[in-house]
Amino acid sequence: MSALIEVENLTRVFDVSKPWLNRVIERLPKALLTAVSDVSFGIEENSVYALVGESGSGKSTIGKIIVGLVPPSSGKVEIDGVDLATEPEGARRAAVRENVQMIFQDPYASLNPRWKVRDIIAEPVSARGGDTEGLAERLLEQVGLSAQDAGKYPHEFSGGQRQRICIARALASNPRIIVCDEPTSALDVSVQSQVLNLMSDLREELGLTYLFISHDLTVVRHMADKVGVLYLGTLVEEAPRDTLYADPKHPYTQMLFEAAPRMDAFGRDIDPPKGEIPDAINPPPGCAFHPRCPIAVDRCRKERPRLREVGKTRVACHLAE
Ligand code: SF4
Ligand code: MG
């Protein structure tokens, strides 16, 4: 059975050269940042797939590629068997628009402050000339707010309520897939679990599929069926949730579990672990994790480990048994 979303050999390279520097120093080589490097995974319908990693690991870029906000440099994304890259622009947009919505970290920044909530929620449908009669009111109730809230403005709501409004807007076009990029990390811990529970309930009621992007291993444990761990744009480990939490096999995943309490709400290291700061422009040769890996051997500095199956886990480490 093929998955609802298939990501194959996905790579995204950004040109991060500084134009002003290029004017000063002629023929400066381009600075290329490989944000996503040869990543493959599948997401089954009506499941939650979490991508975890530190900031800069490439998880948001993968989310943006799947919703069509960023094109891949190479590799492909298939949604329900449709290869987005080979579709003409119009069909590609339609496939994404009909199937995929995105929820962002900051619910305030993504809501137009001058629009009433009714218009914000109905916008994805009204933009296509669809029927929006009573739509916002129905969706507000579905996300645990009240129909009367439709006439208010975003600033009249708390952070958690605003994220519910974002969820209502995402639901307006009846998507099958929602890409959630750190959907609760800007919220108070007490509000986080309410929003996460709402998302779980909606998945069951509506048969939704989530790509859940997070640095927070506690939140991921609560939400995910399967977890992929990213390091410097590479998928280093993937396993069903319980397998990963019981027996993390990659030294980086193990380090993440140890470092978890040291991260702030945005996944930045408060107290960075030993080792060089990874540089995605000049990644280390061999296993990109070797400068920070406590068990690295000579082979790790020369040969890039490929993902291979160990039990129910896929892991990219020469030494994983
Ligand atoms: Fe560590 Fe080597 Fe495994 Fe990379 S391949 S994680 S350096 S042991
Ligand atoms: Mg991010």
From TrEMBL:
CDD domains (alphabetical): ABC_NikE_OppD_transporters
Instruction: Tell me the GO molecular function terms.
Output: ATP binding; ATP hydrolysis activity
The residues covered by the ABC transporter domain are 5-257
Locations listed in the record: Cell inner membrane
Q: Which family does it belong to?
A: Belongs to the ABC transporter superfamily.
Q: Provide the protein name.
A: Peptide/nickel transport system ATP-binding protein
Tell me the keywords, alphabetical order.
ATP-binding, Nucleotide-binding, Transport
Q: Which Gene3D superfamilies match?
A: P-loop containing nucleotide triphosphate hydrolases
Q: How does it sit in the membrane?
A: Peripheral membrane protein
Q: Tell me one Pfam family matched here.
A: oligo_HPY
* SUPFAM superfamilies (UniProt xref): P-loop containing nucleoside triphosphate hydrolases
> Which example biological process does GO assign this protein?
transmembrane transport
Name a GO CC annotation attached to this entry. Answer: plasma membrane
From which source organism is this entry? Roseivivax lentus
